[in-house]
């Protein structure tokens, strides 16, 4: 998973690359040239990179989330290699917001509002998502933010757990998608919507 965003205002020409989620107190950094590597203290696993003076290497014009091309990722890999880092970045341009079909919806034990859902997001690909919306139920077509999605407010969707139950994505409300909210809870789509179809945010 590769999540990238560009900041040419507050951080002045910095490309931020996230590969996984990690609490800041568990992070260490190492800088070589214009690249800072962020990694986990214990495991040494790479969390991400910050590329300073990014516009010297890449053509980036907009602030916020960016979708890197294969050519841009290859340039970044060359920079890593030049700095004697053996890590390799890979492109992931799959849609992060898709139409999902709620196959199962069961109350979460010891909770008065959470449900554990099984949602089909592509051909036979099913994810488990814990959802707190009061209007979710089996048989609905909904909008799913997959892991790696960046919400309009900047929130990144990571795999996680709620009350010990794994949750891999988020079922979205209209407000969370930056749309006008006309009713409480998640956005329920017409049943004719195609499962797995990208949803434009």
TrEMBL record:
Residues 91-200 form the TRNA-binding domain. The keyword Lyase does not apply. Keywords: RNA-binding, tRNA-binding. Gene3D superfamilies: Nucleic acid-binding proteins, YtpR-like. InterPro entries: DUF4479, NA-bd_OB-fold, tRNA-bd_dom, tRNA_bind_bactPheRS, YtpR-like_sf. Transmembrane segments: none annotated. This is tRNA-binding protein.
């Amino acid at each position: 998973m590769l999540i990238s965003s560009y900041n040419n205002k507050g951080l002045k020409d910095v490309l931020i690359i996230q590969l996984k989620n990690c609490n800041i107190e568990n992070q260490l950094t190492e800088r070589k040239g214009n690249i800072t590597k962020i990694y986990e203290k214990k495991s040494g696993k790479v969390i991400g990179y910050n590329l300073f003076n990014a516009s010297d290497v890449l053509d980036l014009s907009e602030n916020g989330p960016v979708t890197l091309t294969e050519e841009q990722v290859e340039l970044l890999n060359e920079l890593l290699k030049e700095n004697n880092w053996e890590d390799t970045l890979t492109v992931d341009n799959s849609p992060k917001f898709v139409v999902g079909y709620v196959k199962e919806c069961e109350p979460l034990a010891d909770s008065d509002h959470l449900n554990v859902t099984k949602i089909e997001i592509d051909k036979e690909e099913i994810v488990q998502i814990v959802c707190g919306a009061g209007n979710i139920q089996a048989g609905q077509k909904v909008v799913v933010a997959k892991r790696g999605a960046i919400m309009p407010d900047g929130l990144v969707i990571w795999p996680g757990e709620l009350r010990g139950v794994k949750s891999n994505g988020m079922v979205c409300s209209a407000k969370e998608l930056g749309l006008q909210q006309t009713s409480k809870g998640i956005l329920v789509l017409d049943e004719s919507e195609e499962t797995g179809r990208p949803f434009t945010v």
